[in-house]
From TrEMBL:
An example Gene Ontology CC term for this record: RNA polymerase III complex
Record protein name field: DNA-directed RNA polymerases I and III subunit RPAC1-like
GO biological process: DNA-templated transcription
InterPro entries: DNA-dir_RNA_pol_insert, DNA-dir_RNA_pol_RpoA/D/Rpb3, RBP11-like, RNAP_Rpo3/Rpb3/RPAC1, RNAPI/III_AC40, RNApol_insert_sf, Rpo3/RPB3_RNA_Pol_subunit
Listed GO MF terms: DNA-directed RNA polymerase activity; protein dimerization activity
UniProt keyword terms in alphabetical order: DNA-directed RNA polymerase, Transcription
Lineage, highest ranks first: Eukaryota, Metazoa, Ecdysozoa, Arthropoda, Chelicerata
Gene3D superfamilies the record matches: DNA-directed RNA polymerase, insert domain, RNA polymerase, RBP11-like subunit
Membership in a protein family: Belongs to the archaeal Rpo3/eukaryotic RPB3 RNA polymerase subunit family.
SUPFAM superfamilies named in the record: Insert subdomain of RNA polymerase alpha subunit (SSF56553), RBP11-like subunits of RNA polymerase (SSF55257)
NCBIfam families: PRK00783.1
Ranges where the DNA-directed RNA polymerase RpoA/D/Rpb3-type domain occurs: 17-286
Gene name tied to this protein: LOC113796215
Length: 291
């Protein structure tokens, strides 16, 4: 028999997170996807800071470093890598920040990432009319300015990948593990004290305690996916542990990806697989050329 085809089954999809099952996959394939997500999916990030004025308490180098780590919402497919000193609307984004705390303000001014303004060049204003370039989150605290203090800077964004610098990495959490499921041993009986223990230690959403099996006392299982971080079983007695069966599915990996907001989580999966595919094609061509 041939090897079974790899399948992807999405189990949870939110604005910035995705959980999916990678079925019939080997560890090297899953790890390749993880490493590509961390190091090779390109994004736009602040590469240069032209600092014209900084009278805040934050040193110039610390301010520039802090600005450089602000995630920028920009479609990576609309830009190309900058391989020369020539600046074009296809390889560069310009942002600016110019904030001063008024003397009469009387207290420190909190400067957030919404103070960063996009400065379109070329046809960027038309290309990104429906989805303007901006910081991913507008409420990131950059600094505090005392009365009369001011910062004025021009920010230059380039396209890059995570292996060059962490600021280009499009993901936060990115990991996988074997899928483990749990069942109740229907041949055993659950007493009332053990039922209360289950009620105490199982997080909401796993068991339905309103529907109890009258024959053996077990509650109905809503979600049988076992996540070790959700459970605390140290205080369970041995009798209760023997009534719960754990089964690890060796052909299924549960993948979790948390986007920082630059790229949608489902698009991250697609782009990482496309990059892996292009690597395989390049590798096959190299082999054929040397045969």
């Amino acid at each position: 028999m041939g090897k079974k085809k790899i399948q992807i089954k999405v189990t949870r999809l939110e604005e910035r997170e995705i959980d999916f099952d990678l079925i019939n996959s080997e560890f090297p394939f899953a790890n390749a996807i993880r490493r590509i997500l961390l190091a090779e999916v390109p994004t736009m990030a602040i590469e240069k800071v032209h600092l014209y004025r900084n009278t805040s308490e934050l040193p110039d180098f610390a301010l520039c470093h802090r600005l450089g780590l602000i995630p920028i919402k920009a479609n990576n497919k609309e830009f190309e890598m900058r391989n020369s000193d020539e600046e074009t609307d296809r390889n560069t984004i310009y942002l600016s920040i110019d904030v001063q705390c008024p003397v009469e303000y009387g207290e420190n001014l909190h400067v957030h990432s919404d103070s960063i303004q996009w400065q379109p060049i070329g046809d960027q204003a038309e290309r990104f009319k429906t989805d303007p370039i901006r910081p991913v989150d507008l409420d990131i605290l950059l600094m505090k300015l005392a009365p009369s203090q001011r910062i004025d800077a021009k920010l230059e964004c380039h396209k890059g990948i995570g292996k060059e610098h962490a600021k280009y990495c499009p993901v936060a959490a990115c990991f996988y593990r074997f899928v483990t499921e749990f069942y109740f041993d229907q041949s055993k009986q659950l007493d009332k004290n053990e039922l209360e223990t289950l009620r105490t230690f199982f997080p909401p959403g796993y068991l339905d305690f309103d529907q109890i099996d009258e024959t053996n006392g077990f509650p109905r299982i809503r979600n049988n996916r076992f996540n070790r971080s959700d459970f605390t079983m140290q205080s369970w007695n041995q009798s209760l542990r023997e009534k719960i069966i754990f089964e690890t599915k060796n052909n299924t990996l549960a993948f979790t990806i948390e986007s920082i907001g630059i790229i949608e989580p489902s698009e991250l999966v697609i782009q990482s697989i496309d990059i892996l595919k292009s690597k395989c094609i390049k590798f096959i061509k190299c082999i054929k050329q040397n045969m």
